[in-house]
Amino acid sequence: MNPLVSIIIPTYNRADYLKYTIDSVINQTYTNTEIIVVDDGSPNDDSKELCRQYSNIKYFKIENSGGPVKPRNYGFQKSKGDYIAFLDDDDLWLPNKLEEQVEILKQNPEFGLVHCYCNVIDEMGNITGKSVGRPGSPEVKHGDVKLKMIGNWTLMMPTPLVRRSLVQEVGSFNENMPQTAADVEYWTRCSFVTKFYYQDLPLVRYRKHINNMSGDKKPYVDVPLYLKQIIDNEIKKERISKTEYKILLNNICISQAKQITVSRLKTFSNLYKLNPFWMINLRLLKVIVKRIVA
């Protein structure tokens, strides 16, 4: 019998954190799983030796790609589960994470994935009292979110449990864009295919430390260009209307305008690529002025 849940863990040269991550999976109350660790070409065998200590881990080592995107795609190719979960090698799951989410997807077949928010921990694993990924109103991240999500928010990578059928329909993570932003593009694509089930619970502990890839904001400057490619494809497929396209493009332009504090040159250049007439949008101009003055 195939495992019901495949857990894919990309890793690179931090076996110390990886051990805690694996243990958080081993300690799940839901046990019908397979664990796939994909090493992105670490310069040593520490992660390999660690994985050998566990009886139910499939370990693969690939040529270094510089980030978690290719390992995630590789791990999915090796997976067998009906449900897929991605977990970075420095984050942790609470013991009931999978059990709760598997039950939700079983009871709600119209939803392609279920996600939640995270409590933040520091380098030593101490809870900081902060959280990430929690909306002001749960409805914002629940249901048909395609008009609410794009350009505004994304899913926290360690939180979703995804149907295999959804991954097969949406396709792989985009390996031809900045690694740190590929998850934003991927979950946005998913939003046009399925409804999202949001749990207002912190079932994940998200570790913030000096080596977090997500701490670098520069790669996100070009994300709006990739998001526009998504809506261009969606209107070609006639899965969104012209009115919806205009709403989504405006949201994308606003998200681009917010990048003015990261790179002015890139922001203005990208705005012209997104919409040559962006300057007549007073809301955009207000966003830019507010960010510059702040």
What is this structure's SSE topology?
Layout: E1 5-11, H1 15-26, E2 33-39, H2 46-51, E3 57-61, H3 69-78, E4 83-86, E5 92-93, H4 97-107, E6 111-121, E7 127-132, H5 146-149, E8 161-163, H6 164-170, H7 182-191, E9 195-207, H8 223-236, H9 242-257, H10 264-274, H11 282-293
Parallel strand pairs: 1-2, 1-4, 2-3, 6-9
Antiparallel strand pairs: 4-8, 5-9, 6-7, 6-8
Helix pairs in contact: 7-8, 8-9, 9-10
Describe the 3D structure.
By secondary structure, the protein is of the alpha/beta class. It folds into two domains: 5-211, Spore Coat Polysaccharide Biosynthesis Protein SpsA, Chain A (Alpha-Beta Complex), CATH 3.90.550.10; 219-293, no CATH class. Helix content is 38%, strand content 20%. It contains eleven helices and nine strands. It has helices at residues 15-26, 46-51, 69-78, 97-107, 146-149, 164-170, 182-191, 223-236, 242-257, 264-274, 282-293, and strands at residues 5-11, 33-39, 57-61, 83-86, 92-93, 111-121, 127-132, 161-163, 195-207. Strands 1, 2, 3, 4, 5, 6, 7, 8 and 9 form a nine-stranded mixed β-sheet that branches. A hairpin with a 5-residue loop joins strand 6 and strand 7 (127-132). Helix 7 (182-191) runs parallel beside helix 8 (223-236), helix 8 (223-236) packs antiparallel against helix 9 and helix 9 runs antiparallel to helix 10 (264-274).
Q: For the record, what is the CATH homologous superfamily label of the largest domain?
A: Spore Coat Polysaccharide Biosynthesis Protein SpsA, Chain A
CATH topology of the largest domain: Spore Coat Polysaccharide Biosynthesis Protein SpsA, Chain A
Q: Please give the CATH architecture of the largest domain.
A: Alpha-Beta Complex
Helix residue percentage:
25-40%
* Share in β-strands: 15-25%
For the residues shown, what is the average pLDDT?
94
Radius of gyration: 19 Å
| DSSP summary, beta strand count | 9
Structural class: alpha/beta
Distance from N terminus to C terminus (CA atoms, Å) equals 58 Å
- Which regions have little confidence, pLDDT < 50, spanning 5+ residues? none
Gross morphology is globular
What's the domain count? 2
H/E order of the elements? EHEHEHEEHEEHEHHEHHHH
Total helical segments: 11
What is the CATH top level name of the largest domain? Alpha Beta
Q: Specify the biggest β-sheet.
A: 9 strands, mixed
